[in-house]
Write the structure tokens for this entry.
Amino acid sequence: MNAEQEEYEVAIMRKRINSLWIVLSLVFVVILNIIIFLINTNFTTTFWVSYGFIHFAYLMLVISSSSMPKAKNELVFGYPLIYVSSLYFICAFLIGSIFIYFKNASFISSFIPQLIIAGLYVQAYISNIIINEKTISNEIESQYHISYIKNAASELSLLMVQSTDPIVKKKLEKLYDSFRSSQVKSYPSLFEIEERIKQHLQILKANLQTNDYSEVNHVIETINGLLMERNGKISGMH
């Protein structure tokens, strides 16, 4: 079986799992509605408020459960998102069940408790999305800067080949060795200086292409100074 066939079979299996999950979710909703409408015959405003919030809570539980591995890893106040969604559904279901069969309850008394717990849940849910987006963004930025030493060394190796001046080539080799011996791990406090190094590498590349060796020497010294500053800051962190 080749890679394409494996990917196709995995995709088919995922579709089947998703379909079964949808069927399972609908079965619960159908059974719940049958029980509710068989037992209850007095469809007041309080009934529809409770009915609506119960179904909203269940919808959010299904959405959280549809990506179980991700939902288990996403934390809200230290608890997995799936647990928070389950807790919200249980609370909404219990409160809703009480008011569905408490026929003399007013609209306000049934609506406000549901609104409060729904508001708390939605706030926690949105906060979770914001935190996850920020975490992903930070990880991408951190990974980008971690790979910068390797990328810079690789770019310098190409510039060494392009250089025809033996003195400049020797300086490039020395700068290359400095990059190769530098700490690969990066920190947010180093991002600014790393960006400056990248900018000067581009300037160095442009100067080599125009054979402006007087400026090349100056840029190499600048890059070397910035690199030494970066490495010094890393040493101070340990």
Observations:
- The two ends are 50 Å apart (CA to CA).
- Strands lie at 75-76, 79-80.
- The chain has a mean pLDDT of 78.
- The chain has nine helices and two strands.
